[in-house]
Amino acid sequence: MTDPEPKKLSGRLIALTGLIMLATIMQTLDMTIANVALPHMQANLGAGQDQISWVLTSYVVATAIGVSLTGYVVDRFGRTRVFIYSIGGFTIASMLCGLSQTLPEIVVFRVFQGLAGACLVPLSQATLMDLYPREKFGPALAVWGMGVMLGPIFGPTIGGFLTEYLSWRWVFFINLPLGIVCVVGIAALLPETKRNTATKFDMTGFLLIAAALASFQLFLDRGQTLDWFSSFEIVIEAAVAVIALYLFVVHIFTTDRPFLNPALFKDRNYLTGSIFGFSIGVTLLSTMMLLPSMLQSLLGYPIIETGYLMMPRGIGTMLAMAFAGKLNRRVDPRLMMLLGAILIGQSMWEIAGFDLNVTSYLLCKTAFVQGVGMGVLFTSMSILSFATLPQTFRTEGTAIYALIRSIGSSIGISIVSTILVQQTQVNHAELSERITPFNRALQNAAPQIPWNLSSPGGLRALNGEVSRQAAMISYIDVFALMTLITLITLPLIFILRRPKFTASPASTESTAADH
Q1: In degrees, to the nearest 5, what angle opens at C-alpha 402 toward C-alphas 388 and 66?
Q2: Which helix (H) or strand (E) covers residue 428, if one does?
Q3: pLDDT (tens digit, 9 = 90+) per residue, 396-449?
Q4: Residue 455, class by beta-carbon neighbours within 10 Å (0-12 exposed, 13-18 middle, 19+ buried)?
Q5: What is the 3-state secondary structure (H, E, C) of 241-283?
Q6: DSSP state of 191
Q7: Is this prediction's pTM over 0.90?
Q8: How far is CA 168 from CA 47, 99, 306, in A?
Q9: How far apart are CA 303 and CA 182, in angstroms?
Q10: CB–CB of 26/175 below 8 Å?
């Protein structure tokens, strides 16, 4: 449903855009805001180190499963009604998380929170594309992209501040005022869509994809802890994920009304954009988790300062998205997308050259460059991915698009975690081989620093330094790998078709001839 006067950007349309963006930020913020509060939750709830991670895992699994339902529930119950129930349910679940007294309680409420808010990101994207005409997709998707990207980026900063000065419970309580504003505003301003009460729910398809996603997420989360396929549990989880996914694919191609319409992937831009989105999930979202860990565990920054050092990335993203939406109407979005990917790759390559003495200035500079690249890339990628997709597939397409990116993120985090643990052990062993009484560099350094091979204290100090250096080399290896993955995906950009509505008047005819 299109706004009556989209070209004039009426006050109602601007207010709706702000509310939709706020709902998006609220949901994406909870992906990372609880990360820095985990140690405090662990102590308060009496949980073990391996158990407290369930607070994050339960939310991710529930969100992945819930997002796949977006197309059906919107078609069956209507867009505005789903928006209101999702935001309301998410807010209530957030309050219950903050009031939890035991680990099982907070895990159950995080599941409810993930399920309730799962459709907010794809639904917000589809709604903005319905409210704005195609020629204004750039600015609209730039605003939406801010909500998607700024939530996870500023999550650790906000979470660290609330935990430090209030309590870990406030990382959940903060959603109450946001939720109330969104529910009241959207109920008053967003027009309802037609409901299709005859829509049939493909229960078989849903159960298969839910089983595949849940098993796959557990496989990724617990694989490193249980030493992967040496564990019977991991073998079972991998087998269930593969079998369920295979049966799901067979099912959607053989049933009359499948849970996921395969026709979605006949659109070249949508298919290519989904693949690129997957790679972005692998590289960007995993490294967003990686940098705070490196800053705190290796470089010794406290939670608050770590959050401040991450802020330039968010500032760069906001500035880039503010201009990228308009520029994409004048410049080929594929070139903008290429520029963003190059900036991201360059920043990751620069991070791969860091050492333990890296300055705060250099950390902020690379974070800002990466943020600019993310803003340019994400806006252009969103425009290109949906430029040629029929409107009938829009809601379902945005849900699957978000799901694919989420799966990429899960795989990326698993890859990063595995490399860090394994390579740190390998690097520690290789560096330790060089620690001998005959090492001249060690002999020359010993008088100035507390490294003494003949005393227990000196050996402990030396082992601590070797461990730090081994871990830093592992972080460098990870960022070098992510740089390589970014470069490998660049050719995908040239497969995309340029949207006709982005062409300038002088080039309209040539653009049409090209395609």
Answers
A1: 130
A2: helix 394-432
A3: 888 888 888 878 877 887 788 788 888 888 988 988 887 777 766 666 655 555
A4: exposed
A5: HHHHHHHHHHHHHHCCCCCCCHHHHHCHHHHHHHHHHHHHHHH
A6: P
A7: no
A8: 15, 11, 17
A9: 30
A10: yes
